[in-house]
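Pair request: fold both.
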Amino acid sequence: MKRLNDIFTKDIQTAVIAGHVNPDGDCVGSATALLGYVRRNYPWIDVSLYLERPKEALMFLPGLCEEVFTEPAMRSVDLFVTCDVSTKDRIAAAGALFDAAGKTVSIDHHASNPLFADVNIVDGEAGSCAEVLFTLFEEEKISRDIAISLYTGIIHDTGVFQYSNVRPSTLRIAATLLEKGVPAAKIIDESFNERTLVQNRVLGYVLAREKTFMEGRIAAGCISLEEMRQCGAEKKDLDPIVASLRLTAGAECAVFVYETEPGTSKVSLRSSSETDVAKVAALFGGGGHTKAAGCTVQGKPEEVLVLLTEALGKEMNADD
């Protein structure tokens, strides 16, 4: 595994850090951790972070400010680093700078990453991109703020250490970060567990209409744009839903479909069994992890739900 000294060399004067579209806790945590580490340890580099605005619960992370959410003004940069980005076309905010950069680096934990950068540091078995980043940092150079960002990334992509992607090293890393003074309980409650009234309302709406397939082995739900409007919900309010579906007794996999625009639906897939949902997502042009993946499919939510549950059922039968 490379160390960052091999990447952030003396000939790098300008650098950009970017994440993926609709950034989650791991993406934002990783990106802000890297931003803080570079500013702290490579002071000759003019480094900027560009992200789509994350959900409000993540806005406490160090380094986030209004300029992060604007389009970059520069035309070229010496170094472009992506955090938690599985494919080039998922780079958000500063994607136009990628091809013009002198050197590109991908730091990621998606096993499906096609190694799209000049330098690719990808650990497909890591529970989060933040975990990969920790292995690149020198422990004594990790400040409390950097530790807060890394810990946030880890808890979001491991479900607060509940998911099967947790390794013994994940817990050792978390313990090291706690020793840096991370307020773990506060971060978990306010950025992971806490839900708004609207989130509770739309979660209840979907769960009240939950369907099961494969004799209960698949739990599924969907929502249309009109139904979202009736609940007063936006895309950002839908995050907790697929995880709740996954907790249905007897369910080995969960499917959640929501309409992003008329005739286009986004699919989130989760697995608590040996079924590789990334393989199913790939059939529809998507990707992700073995246990968590997604794709975008043309069609109304109800129609797409049928397509995805059929494909998922075939994959589950093949595993059997």
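--- second member of the pair ---
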Amino acid sequence: MNTPKAIVIVAAIISICGVIGYYLHLENNRYEITTSSKGIAYQVDKKTGESWVIRGDTKVPHESPKPSVPAAVMPYSESSKVTGRASLSYGYFKGNIYNGSSWNVSEFTVELTVKEKDGSVRWSRRYKESISLPALQTKDFIFQVTGDAENGDLSWGITEVKGYAP
């Protein structure tokens, strides 16, 4: 008669220990360290979504700058003044972008195309990059690219620019 009662007590103890262990697991794995494609390290609280930028031995709260006006596709007369220089190197497309317009740029899209020696297209892809670039300023950018460009002819261009007028 005591055997079923002992089994129930043991099962209850194991269940309680399992729940406590799971709770401790969640608390001990609450934070995640991740890096951006630009090499910036962030600590993210998986429970609340808060994040911090890690610089050396300090943590600074990460707050994304948000314009008071939503970004819109810039008119051609302004977006044509956004130019840049860049190249593909070891799987990364990197360079700088100059905002010669009167708008503040918040996002730009580039199209990369690699052609074979005979002129046929090996691959073509579009990449969007968020940026905070005021008028008449230059900023560096870098992002990872998938696809082999070795022995191919790379061409690229800015296809879309989003931002907001001051």
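Observation on the second member. The chain has a mean pLDDT of 85.
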